[in-house]
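Notes from the 1:1 (GR / supervisor)

We went over the backlog. Supervisor wanted to see one worked example end to end before approving the batch request, so GR pasted a single chain during the call. The sequence is below; no edits were made to it. Supervisor asked that the structure be written out right there so they could see what the output format looks like.
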Amino acid sequence: MAKAIMLQGTSSNVGKSVLATALCRIFLQDGQKVVPFKSQNMALNSYVTRDGGEMGRAQVVQAEAAGLDPHVKMNPILLKPTGQASSQVIVLGRPVGNISARQYHLEYATQAVDTIQACLDEFHEQYDVIVIEGAGSPAEVNLKARDIANMRVAKMADAPVLLVADIDRGGALASVVGTLALLDPDEQERIKGIVINKFRGDISLLQPAIDFLEEYTKKPVVGVVPYFKGVHIQEEDSVALEKPITEVPTGEMLDIAVIRLPRISNFTDFDALSTEGAAQVRYVEAPGRLGRPDMVIIPGTKNTIEDMLWLQKTGLTEEIRAVAEKGILVWGICGGYQILGKEIQDPQGVESSVPVVAGLGLLDMVTTMEAEKVTQLASATICGHGPYLGPLQGLSVQGYEIHMGQSVASSEAKPFCRIERRGEELVDVIDGIVDADGLVIGSYLHGIFDNDSLRHHLLNTLRRKKGLEPINFASAASVAERKEQDYNRLADIVRLSLKMDLLYDIVGIEGPKNSPESETVPAP
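Structure output shown during the call:
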């Protein structure tokens, strides 16, 4: 039977996901067969597994750090907010319907316990260590009786708990003490240690607070993790966009503007564009801020019609059309692709009570929402048209589809790509459209910019258009290589920040078996 360790937080956004990622990589480096788990996740950034299931992005990242292919059993319940206090509920990778928050908590949540237990039982048999992430806080007294993400799961997995507090936001000591005070005695006993996260400054100045916390709570502080930069770990929560980059870059940096839709999803699509030092990705959500970027991206959205209405209300529709008329590249992904078309129809009320709305009209295409959801990994070939895609004709790319609509283009429309494989099935499907000039591109493929050859060609084509010298990307690390480097650097930082002997004692396993050398990490 596997051992388990669970990370719970004094609140949301204290860094549980990143710390769980670090533990997955640390245990992997130390010779353990480790698997991540989060019983219930709420996020709009999701991912599609090899078998076409949908799961939260954080557990995908943790699976990669653990050296595993992502599987929906790592995140059996996924909630994707649709607005109006309701969410699409996805169980073991498949949508079961849209349910109001009240109905979910009062009627549905506890029904999922058997599903959660079955996943845990399977992992207990297959792995050495299960790294479990909680959700929000375990001390939400109004939700506690029906909570299926925190203490109930810790008991089901027989997992000791580390309580994580974010000291950067202030009030960390009070949040730890208050959280413990609101827990039942048996739950207090299950918490075996405290982790202070995101600390800035001289740790010696924090020592009196650590001494007080340990004396007052009778719980050891397992570690103090510094606030660090320069390690890129993909975020799944839109909280990451609460303070997005909004300023126009200076110098030779490309300016890529992403429209910050209210219901934006899968914003990790753009991470690869900003990590090579060639471009800055900024977010635009107010009129008058779009300016004249080198490229505009309209991202995915959980509710295309409502976000199209928001674009009309803000006046951003006219600004996007204006930059397109100036020959600036406009690229729409998934819901953003649907927005680029002439019309979006939802006669069955799949996403919205509004049956039809006009799109931007930049692509000759009409979208109809359908109840059946497409979730598949996809392998495709670029068809090639225009200055950005023409030289890429025949290039093989990988991506994934998550959408609930079908888009039908005119017979004269130029296709973006030809999908040749969905999951394990061979297909022959045209996806996306490119306008006559090749300057407006739309596609359902998420993850398209993770393809190194396409991304490098795109960035250099934009640079040439701006009058800049192209970059030699021949020696640049791939997206996959950069992820591995970042997971190792994260593991190094966290390993040096925790009392590892105490951690292994809490988990109940022996120390490192064959910890490999990892790259040297500079001081955070």
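Supervisor's comment: The longest strand covers residues 365-382.
Batch request approved.
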